[in-house]
Amino acid sequence: MTPAPIAVALDAPDLETAARWAALVTPHVSTVKVGLELYLRYGPDVIASVRGASGVNIFLDLKLHDIPNTVAGAAKAVARLRPTILTVHAAGGPAMIRAAVDSAPGTRIAAVTLLTSLSEADLDRIGLAGPAIDAVRRLAVLAVGAGARALVCSPREVAAVRAEVGPDVMLITPGVRPDGAASQDQARVATPEQALADGADLLVIGRPITGAADPGAAAATIAAVLRRMIPTP
């Protein structure tokens, strides 16, 4: 059975829990996501622990954002861990994005457009010209022009970004919540079905799966719905 295009966010309190969640969900999903907190706490060991014997894709979500030389060094340092995807902030600019791309040639660099926790009011406060959908489109075009082969955007903007960058760029959407799930700290959300229908390639889902009594069963339920939407080759 083909794994569903879901990246389960392993925002776990410890390494053992992260590895257990990964083992439970990997029969059903294509990818597991290791975020900044888990990586800073356990370092490279976390990648081996959650990858296990399954060979699941690793989405290393570090959101690098610094001067190009520093980002180049950081990307090169983690490239040896063979993550499938590594995130940088699109707002770091084209030279920074290109530095990451050049330093990790075996990894897909994904540029984060706007954090899904940001609202329109937040954009005004930080001085970023909105509305959000326009800011996301500008950052998407900038990042792809600098060599990024993936973009992270909220499900609210994915259709507009797909129209802007074409079919060959992977679109990753956090802020995905099944019907009935709380939005928690996400401001711009959608259901998995809507995000996929609008053109997303990979859906980031965390607490609706990892917070369930049985994370494996929760992942299987969402995966089954998405598989029905994906045409059989």
Description:
- The protein has 233 residues and is of the alpha/beta class.
- Helix content is 43%, strand content 18%.
- The chain has helices at residues 15-25, 36-42, 45-51, 68-79, 94-103, 120-126, 132-145, 158-165, 192-197, 207-210, 215-229; strands at residues 4-9, 29-35, 57-64, 85-89, 108-112, 150-152, 170-173, 202-205.
- The longest helix is centred in the C-terminal third of the chain and has 15 residues, at 215-229.
- The relative contact order is 0.15.
- Residues 182-188 have low confidence and may be disordered.
Sum up the overall morphology in one term: globular
Rg from Cα: 17 Å
> Could you tell me the mean pLDDT?
91
N-to-C CA distance: 13 Å
The portion of residues assigned to helices is 40-55%
- Contiguous low-pLDDT stretches (5 residues minimum) are 182-188
According to DSSP, the number of beta strands is 8
Order of helices and strands: EHEHHEHEHEHHEHEHEHH
Going by helix content, strand content and strand pairing, the class is alpha/beta
* Major β-sheet strand ordering: 1-2-3-4-5-6-7-8
Major beta sheet summary: 8 strands, parallel, barrel
Strand composition percent: 15-25%
Number of helices: 11
